Amino acid sequence: MELAWPFLVALLFFLLAFLHANSGRHAHRRLPPGPAVVPVLGNLLWFRHQGMDVLRAVSRLHARHGPLLALRMGSRLQVTVSDRRLAHLALVERGAAMADRPEFAPRELLGLDAHAITTSSYGPLWRLFRRNFVSEVAHPARLRLFAPARAAVLAELTNKLRLMEGEGGGDRGTIVEAFQHAMFGLLVAMCFGERLEERAVRDIAAAQRDLLLYSGNLGVLAFLPAITTRLFSGRIRAMATKRQRLKDMYMPLIHARRERKIHGSARRDSQTMTTTAALPHSYVDTLLDIRLNDDEGGRALTDDEMVALCSEFLNAGTDTTSTALQWIMAELVKNPDIQDKLHGEIEATIATTGLDHISEEDVHKMPYLKAVVLEGLRRHPPGYLVLLHAPAEDMELGGYMIPKGTTVNFMVADMSMDEQAWERPTQFAPERFLPGGDGEGTDITGTREIRMMPFGAGRRICPGLNVATLHLEYFVANLVREFEWREQEGEEVDVDGEKAEFTVVMANPLRARLVPRGIV
């Protein structure tokens, strides 16, 4: 401690000098309004709580200061946007200017040498990664190649839910856990081209979640990274260990697909992972074919780069989709008339196809199903904020200056509850998206205008939009086809309580009585 005090005093003086210089540099600019700033700490005292309390605090500050809000986290300026028109101006009309990502700490200091779609700066590498995902995974023709995995995961999920309803089912997990495992297992199959045994899927999920949870410990590195990366070097080493653990799980699966491409069949030690089925196409297959641009020598991806992209693939689609699925099913339990109307559309569709389930082709012909999913995403967007943006140059927005490199975010939930855009926004009403409703023709991509943006908008809109909406429509339809979802006796489903985790989830996880509908 005796050695630490001089260092801390020197750090304090350095911070004060930095803030003074920074405030002088921007004195001639009209920055967005915000609460009073405490020297060194900025507005950190406003956010001494966590989770939903932080989101609610930001909403209250917007109500006080307006649609553009400036906050300081230490020396770093952050701006949030709550107005949908300003969001459209920033993300769509001036999309290229707001398409970058903030770099909160030099990647070399963190020991990172691999980019992914979400983390790459706006430029050739990002375009390459995104174009590959959109054309080779999210394109409808490619999505059809994963149909066997979707059908198998659906069968496993319905069997698991049926067992949960049976005698002694209370120890077989919860509905949301079943949803999370199903979505993660499906994405593992799509990523690596193989459906793995349940134990292998759970091991990968545990390693992935452990890494994601621990990454929250690196937030302190945003506060003067040149210093904090040395003060907290142990956290960086711990992250490296967790990344290596995940890499050790991924690489046998990646090597198996490489062998399959070369020799036509996979050869792998049976003790590492046991597969139950192989798919003709996978995300890893596309990564093995990528060659970087000429300035990178036209080389193939490194192992670390492929691991980063695979990890992103699994992270981005699991919690978001399973969270949205839970909210939608909860609303269907809460609103049995809406569930009955949806089931009527399902029965009518099955009557025309002669199948005993709803296929991927069927969901495209079911307007009420689409309306239910859209209303679920509007009323309960899985993320109340998007991934961070940063302007590439100084940018004027709403009469204020946003300096280059400023961290910018957008209040997704506030926009989808805007009373000027929606009638009775707190009500779950899928009919609003049908002809004559106030949401008719809503563009979920936000290209024409932003009324809701659960997947973001503009250049950095989530490239998995088509994948997520297909999965939601497919699973919602077939779960309603299989079961009648009712409230447990004496237990009211709470569709208003919220809790912030990786996504905004139900504060009281969904519990429902599932009554098998039988064979139609």
UniProtKB/TrEMBL annotation:
<dbReference type="InterPro" id="IPR002401">
    <property type="entry name" value="Cyt_P450_E_grp-I"/>
</dbReference>
<keyword id="KW-0349">Heme</keyword>
<keyword id="KW-0812">Transmembrane</keyword>
<keyword id="KW-0560">Oxidoreductase</keyword>
<dbReference type="InterPro" id="IPR051103">
    <property type="entry name" value="Plant_metabolite_P450s"/>
</dbReference>
<feature type="transmembrane region" description="Helical">
    <location>
        <begin position="211"/>
        <end position="233"/>
    </location>
</feature>
<keyword id="KW-0472">Membrane</keyword>
<dbReference type="InterPro" id="IPR001128">
    <property type="entry name" value="Cyt_P450"/>
</dbReference>
<keyword id="KW-1133">Transmembrane helix</keyword>
<dbReference type="GO" id="GO:0005506">
    <property type="term" value="F:iron ion binding"/>
</dbReference>
<dbReference type="Pfam" id="PF00067">
    <property type="entry name" value="p450"/>
</dbReference>
<protein>
    <recommendedName>
        <fullName>Cytochrome P450</fullName>
    </recommendedName>
</protein>
<dbReference type="GO" id="GO:0016709">
    <property type="term" value="F:oxidoreductase activity, acting on paired donors, with incorporation or reduction of molecular oxygen, NAD(P)H as one donor, and incorporation of one atom of oxygen"/>
</dbReference>
<dbReference type="InterPro" id="IPR017972">
    <property type="entry name" value="Cyt_P450_CS"/>
</dbReference>
<feature type="signal peptide">
    <location>
        <begin position="1"/>
        <end position="21"/>
    </location>
</feature>
<dbReference type="GO" id="GO:0020037">
    <property type="term" value="F:heme binding"/>
</dbReference>
<comment type="similarity">
    <text>Belongs to the cytochrome P450 family.</text>
</comment>
<feature type="binding site" description="axial binding residue">
    <location>
        <position position="462"/>
    </location>
    <ligand>
        <name>heme</name>
    </ligand>
</feature>
<keyword id="KW-0732">Signal</keyword>
<dbReference type="GO" id="GO:0016020">
    <property type="term" value="C:membrane"/>
</dbReference>
<dbReference type="InterPro" id="IPR036396">
    <property type="entry name" value="Cyt_P450_sf"/>
</dbReference>
<keyword id="KW-0503">Monooxygenase</keyword>
<keyword id="KW-0408">Iron</keyword>
<keyword id="KW-0479">Metal-binding</keyword>
